[in-house]
Amino acid sequence: MRTLRTKVAVVGAGPAGLFLAHELRAHGVDSVIVERCTREHVERRVRAGLLEEGTVRLLRGSGLADRLDRQCLVHDGFQLRFETTSQRISTAALIGEPTYIYGQQEVVKDLLAARPPGGDSLYFGAQDVRLAGIAGASPSVAFTTGGEQVVVEADFIAGCDGYHGVSRASIPPAALTFHSRRYPFNWIGLLVSAAPFAPELVYSVHPRGFALQSMRTPEISRLYLQTDGRDELSDWPESRIWDELAQRLYVDVSRTRERGAILEQVRVPLRSTVAEPMQFGRLFLVGDAAHIFPPTAAKGLNVALEDASALADALVTWYRRGEDGPLEGYSATRLRAVWRAQDFSAWLTWLFHPAADATPFDHRRRIASLTRLAEGGSSAIAFADEYVGRSRRRPPSRPHLTAPRIHELDGMEG
């Protein structure tokens, strides 16, 4: 058995864990990262691709955005389609901020490339990961790699290992409240080797269900289609998918020359989860280990990097000045932002997705809300403020003037 000593043990080498370790290293705080998957898997898994302005500022401020600034797609707005309406919503014109298209796996590659070579600070393919001592002053992470057992002793543990990871599961159930909501529909996600038919995202609300055109590069499209929550991928052959996309997006994407090869086809469940508190003893939950968002508003990666940045700041303050206030307040501070993002994500999910049991009254309310958004004005400004995440960057004491607008559809079809 081999024993290592570090200040912070980071469980999980996704974007949150890697960014946290990067920030700690920049301030002289050493860490060890333990990841159960291989490096190849971590670099290749396709996840979110929409970055908020605040996220890009974090990456730029940490010296991680050189490739992002060269390769990302900057979107000043998006298209909203419903019934006979096609309206462009410009977040740049409304509040002065765009969004950026740059895949999560690309962020991971940039973070890995920024790490110094060599050393025993990053372990991929770790097996049988276990946490111990999290309630006391000497927590540790044990795992097996290459047939050898390794124990990492640390001052603190950062649980960045996602929804199914060991970190949250290590907290005593009596000390944790877990909130969960499962939506009655899923998405089918396609990664297609074809140029997007529109230069920006297209959110389309159709009586048959929601559809989204996104992209990863100018040559790679990302398409999403609402399906019933009970459907399996086998219920959706390729011909049916293209037919539905053609109808719901109000374009003829089914033409052969526009289809392209399907590089990936996945079933995406829509759910919301929040674990409270986001810390227990010397263990701090970060990103998907603490919260999951429905993909509708693309908040997952953005909020996860905010978590990592806040925890890094708190840890650096503790090591530099011995102040534990920011660490003690980590959960309360982050949960305010998490619940704000959950609120908007849930609202947008119900706005965009017709439910199977929706009544004509529900339908007319949805169209009225979409029309008000398309018309601009205060509703559009409130929407843009949440969509680009600017609202989460405001001081908590500032009045939330947009709250009545954002909550209008609460409870609809739910």
Distance between the termini: 52 Å
Rg over C-alpha atoms, rounded to the nearest angstrom: 22 Å
| Unreliable segments of 5+ consecutive residues | 398-414
Percent of residues in helices comes to 25-40%
CATH superfamily membership: FAD/NAD(P)-binding domain
Give the CATH architecture.
3-Layer(bba) Sandwich
E-strand count: 21
Number of domains: 1
Strand content: 25-35%
Top CATH class: Alpha Beta
Shape: globular
User: In this structure, how is the largest beta sheet organized?
Assistant: 8 strands, mixed
Description of the molecule:
With 414 residues, the protein is α/β, with parallel strands linked by helices. It is 35% helix and 29% strand. It has one domain (1-414): FAD/NAD(P)-binding domain. The protein is built from 15 helices and 21 strands. It has an 8-stranded mixed β-sheet with strand order 7-6-15-16-17-14-18-21, with helices on both faces. α1 (15-26) runs parallel beside α6 (104-113) and α1 runs parallel beside α10 (300-321). The longest helix has 23 residues, at 330-352. 44% of the residues are buried. Residues 398-414 have low confidence and may be disordered.
